[in-house]
């Protein structure tokens, strides 16, 4: 059987020249704890070997209030221990304007980026991503706003999240710098980007895929239908071989794709983040990798 390449612990973030870890930590549920507890969690993640921290201005919002709370708490942690800033790559997102759905107008993007910088207590953000595409914003206007933010030093590079291939192509057409990352939902139960051209486009454009919800919103751990159970069975078979958890195996399956997606670990428990790092130990072969894909598709390959 043909073994796939080993998973490297680090990779380049698109064409940015920035080196990041091959796994990231997501801060969607980071808000709601005190600063001391938050600091302990941040240190625990760093101690696991993860340096790419992914947050967003919407993180912490509960439907009524809390907009910006995850960034603000993270900013307090960074302000109390300024040495942390040199140990991590910070990524954030914006473009969801409450109570409106999405806003990628030049005026809003400028205020959103400034607000994120203020909450994070940073002078610059390594990666800033448009969280959701705004259909009513002309990509040329969006591109000019992003370029202005880069030129002013507010952000170092730009990415997109939940964009279609055509939306990425349109924005890229008007940008004078590369889009370094794309953030779709990818998991062993959400394989669309592997089959609809999204990850092919990422490889062509040298964009780093950042995979959100890599455990399918908990369905990998708790299968809720026949398809999910079939995927779990195949993951468990590999997990047993390497002596690791199903979750770590699910992360590694994503990472084995040639576009080298970076799974964003959403757990706010240090032990589960540490467990996820076992994903780096898996050596996939084509037969086993495709066995998971077949289970995910629910039908044999042609």
From TrEMBL:
<dbReference type="InterPro" id="IPR036812">
    <property type="entry name" value="NAD(P)_OxRdtase_dom_sf"/>
</dbReference>
<dbReference type="InterPro" id="IPR018170">
    <property type="entry name" value="Aldo/ket_reductase_CS"/>
</dbReference>
<dbReference type="InterPro" id="IPR050523">
    <property type="entry name" value="AKR_Detox_Biosynth"/>
</dbReference>
<feature type="domain" description="NADP-dependent oxidoreductase">
    <location>
        <begin position="23"/>
        <end position="289"/>
    </location>
</feature>
<dbReference type="InterPro" id="IPR023210">
    <property type="entry name" value="NADP_OxRdtase_dom"/>
</dbReference>
<protein>
    <submittedName>
        <fullName>Aldo/keto reductase</fullName>
    </submittedName>
</protein>
<dbReference type="Pfam" id="PF00248">
    <property type="entry name" value="Aldo_ket_red"/>
</dbReference>
């Amino acid at each position: 059987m043909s073994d796939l390449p080993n998973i490297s612990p680090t990779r380049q973030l698109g064409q940015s020249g920035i080196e990041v870890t091959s796994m990231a930590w997501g801060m969607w549920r980071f808000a709601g704890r005190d600063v001391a507890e938050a600091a302990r969690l941040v240190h625990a993640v760093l101690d696991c070997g993860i340096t790419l921290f992914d947050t967003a201005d919407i993180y912490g919002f509960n439907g009524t209030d809390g907009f910006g709370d995850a960034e603000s708490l993270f900013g307090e942690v960074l302000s109390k221990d300024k040495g942390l800033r040199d140990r991590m790559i910070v990524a954030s997102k914006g473009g969801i304007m409450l109570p409106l759905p999405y806003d990628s107008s030049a005026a809003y993007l400028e205020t959103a980026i400034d607000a994120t910088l203020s909450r994070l207590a940073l002078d610059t953000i390594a990666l800033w991503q448009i969280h959701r595409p705004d259909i009513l914003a002309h990509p040329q206007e969006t591109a000019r706003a992003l370029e202005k933010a880069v030129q002013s030093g507010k952000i170092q590079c730009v990415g997109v999240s939940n964009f279609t291939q055509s939306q990425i192509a349109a924005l890229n057409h008007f940008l004078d710098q590369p889009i370094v990352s794309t953030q779709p939902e990818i998991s062993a139960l959400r394989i669309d980007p592997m089959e609809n051209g999204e990850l092919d486009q990422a490889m062509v454009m040298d964009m780093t895929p950042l995979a959100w919800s890599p455990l399918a919103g908990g369905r990998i751990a708790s299968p809720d239908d026949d398809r999910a159970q079939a995927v779990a069975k195949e993951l468990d078979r590999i997990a047993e071989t390497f002596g690791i958890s199903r979750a770590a195996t699910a992360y590694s399956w994503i990472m084995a794709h040639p576009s080298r997606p970076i799974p964003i670990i959403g757990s706010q428990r240090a032990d589960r983040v540490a467990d996820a790092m076992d994903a780096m130990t898996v050596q996939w072969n084509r037969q086993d990798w495709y066995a998971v894909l077949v289970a995910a598709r629910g039908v044999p390959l042609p």
